[in-house]
Structure prediction request, 287 residues.
Amino acid sequence: MHTRLSIGEMAKLRNVTVDTLRHYDKIGLLKPYHIDPDSGYRYYSISQYEVLGTIKELREIGFSLEEIKQFLTDRNVKKSVQLLQKSLDNLEDKIRHLQHIHAILQTRISNIEQFTNSYKDAEIVIKRFDERNYIQLDKPVSWADKEKLYFGLLELENKVSGVLPVFASNKFGDFIKQDYFDEIRQSSDFSHHLSAYQSHIFLLVQDEESNQPTQTIKKGLYACTYYGGIVREKMLSQLKKLLQYCDENGYVITGDALRIMQIDVSLTDQSDEAYYEIQIPIQENTE
Prediction:
């Protein structure tokens, strides 16, 4: 005579829930050895202990419940090995995927630390950047039109693929046209400039992230500074400082300025911790 285990006893032996055993019964994966016709109570045989253990192990290595049903039906060594090999292949794919995410997160943490450390000793620094590729919105957006600005950022984000394409990255930015520089140099009150300027929004991309045509930001030296917060007046006053620094130190400005979000709102609720870096391409005046 088989020793009968109640559903609660069986669940406790294998450290699963009673609801799990009820579900396995419902889908035909593990039927009770006996169901009392009067009370409806489910009872299990101790021999089913090993079957439940196999189910748990197969779930642990990634088998779906349907795959487990196939595994437990008409088993033979060849069929079992084939199913195990399929599971192994899936696990290797997941490992590669997680390793890729790990590398991305390591790079992004490193970028944040490098950005923070670069301004420990000075508010304005000279940096050298490699060539960078980007995609850009077709039309510029007014700085004063926040709704269009946010829709523009979303449009660019939807054009890239890959793992964690934007989260905690230093990829979003916009160009500040060189045509504005003289006006900014001469301004003392920036509040009235907000509606006049147009923002050419871009997203830095790797080759594999986008099937869109990309443009290139040239490599070379950039005079850089930063500011915290999302207030445009802060950006303009900081840009003025950077322009004055270039003028005073004889740096020749060779193109539009870039404003790149270095620490974004995906990492902080504090607006002052949302840091932007302004980068102006320069060549050193050797005269």
